[in-house]
Amino acid sequence: MTAPGTSPSRPRRPSRLPGSGSAGQVAALLRASGPMTRGELGTTMGLSRTTVSATVTRLIEDGWVDERPSTTTFTGRGRPPTLLALTQQAGIAIGVDLGRSHARVVLAHLGHEVLAEQALELHESWHATAAVEAVEKLVDDVVAAAGVDRAGIVGIGLGLPAPLDTSGHSASITIPPDWMREDPARALSQRLGVPVVVDNDANLGALAEARWGAGRRSDTLFYVKASTGIGAGLVLGGRLFRGSAGTAGELGHFTVDEDGLVCRCGSRGCLEVRAGGPALVAEVGHSRSGINNVGDLIAAARGGDLACTRVLADAGETLGVALAAVLNILNPDRVVLGGELGGAGELVLASLRESLARNALSSAVRSSSVVPSQLGRRAEALGAVLLVLTEAERFTTQPGPRAKGARSPLTQGHRSGQQAHGHQP
Ligand SMILES: [Zn+2]
């Protein structure tokens, strides 16, 4: 995944990306896995070199696949291998991260190249219609910025800040923001006429960090999104673990103090009540003015403010208490701290590691590295793009919202639409 960019259009277009046969298999693999060499395609699919070569040649001739130089250093003999990737003609994936105080939209094509990205800050008090309208506007903006046709959108992945059940609906009445009661996925799908699939925002952040960020080459990744709320996602062997009811990873509602303040979930002393953004800002409010959000807090700490530094260190300490249980039970090889607190780096991570060392089994601590997010605020929206790329069966054409025969209960909306122009990330 690289920075946004544009590239030349191709002139002629067959109407539909192959969905079956060896060409369909190659296209599906490139969509899910991103650019690959011919050798990797053959090995992964168990196809002969001749079959791969003939199939790829046809896909290139029809404009569905193009070649790009490999970025890895080649030390072998002969020509360095080139990477094969789907082109922009194969379709557009949109990822949306709709949070309590922000919306971010990323547009990529199925060749794993980001073409455009937009974000805006929101007010928590906003209405559902305003939230959906804001996202639709951002989608229009990224479509225009990338110079693509909206008809090429094959699906939208939508990250939401709440525990979701396996039907894609909120598993809690009190945790989600008010605008989630109006089913933003359905509204967005109806407005844009494309399938919209929802997932928990921290799950999507985990997916993106595992593929493109600080979780690469990790087999058991635990991603923490610590912002206004605190959520987490677990990626095992490259796949998200959602739990039996879909709500795995609700780290923010882990009890760290049974006598603590009551949480919006109804429990007492949840991690979120102690280390969520509003709690941290409120804590320094007694002694500091002008600290209105976590960004202010981090900036002040970096500027040497001892009170803000202490609050962030304490947040790391408290996070460590909850994460010690995660380390003991799941033994992840990597913990990635994302969300706004991830941006604090060692101001939080140093005390978090110390807390883990005190509270978790030493073997679990030794086998796990604790690192900051690499994708930062983009993680959740990029994960939403990955949802479209890797779970293609959830974005299939349907006659209408919630039609019978839908491949997944989480898929909403209708229409497929595959066609565009040009090429790569
Ligand atoms: Zn709670």
Question: How would you describe the overall organization of this protein?
Answer:
By secondary structure, the chain is of the alpha/beta class. The chain has three domains: 21-89, Orthogonal Bundle (Arc Repressor Mutant, subunit A), CATH 1.10.10; 91-203 and 379-412, 2-Layer Sandwich (Nucleotidyltransferase, domain 5), CATH 3.30.420.40; 218-374, Nucleotidyltransferase, domain 5. The chain is 37% helix and 18% strand. The chain has 14 helices and 13 strands. The protein has helices at residues 21-33, 38-45, 49-61, 128-146, 184-192, 201-212, 271-275, 277-285, 294-302, 306-330, 339-342, 346-359, 362-366, 379-390, and strands spanning 65-69, 82-86, 92-98, 102-109, 113-121, 153-160, 196-200, 220-226, 230-236, 239-241, 334-338, 369-372, 411-412. The chain has a six-stranded mixed beta sheet with strand order 5-4-3-6-7-13. Helix 1 crosses helix 3. The longest helix is centred in the C-terminal third of the chain and has 25 residues, at 306-330. The radius of gyration is 22 Å and the shape is globular. Mean pLDDT is 86; it is low at 2-11 and 399-425. Residues 253, 263, 265, 267, 270, 272 line the site of zinc ion.
